[in-house]
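[audit] Reproducing an earlier prediction to check determinism. Same input, same settings, fresh worker. If the C-alpha cells differ from the archived copy the diff job will pick it up downstream; this log only records the rerun itself.
[audit] input (118 residues):
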Amino acid sequence: MFLFLRSITNLLETELNNTYVKSLEISGNIARDYESGFFMPPNKQVEYVCQELTKDKKLSEEWAEQFSVQATYSHDPFQEYKYKAHSIFLADINNEVFSNGLYVDNLKKMEKKCFDIL
C-alpha cells in the first residue's frame, strides 16, 4: 500500500511540474491508518492534519496562497487586516477590500435567473 501511495505522489510531482505533494500517515502505520479512516473521529483527524501541515514550512507560509485555490479561502478572524491585505480572491469577490458595483449587479442578475428557473 505504501509503495502505491508513494508512486502516486511521484506521479503527481512529475506530471504537475514538480508540484509539492504532502502525503500524510494519520496513525503511524498503514494498517492503523486504514482503520483510522473508519474509526477515528473526523475532528481528531483534521486536528492532526492541521498540526502536520503547520510543521511543514512549504505549506504553512504564505507562498501556498499563490498556488492553491483552497488556500485563498484562509481567513483568520483574529488577523483581519492580513486577510484583506493578502487575499487573492475571496476578499475581493466579497467586496471586503473595496466595493465593486459590477459584482453586485452580476449577483443580482444571477439571482434573478435562478428564481426564474425555479
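[audit] rerun output stored. Observation attached for the diff report: The first helix runs from residue 2 to 15.
[audit] end
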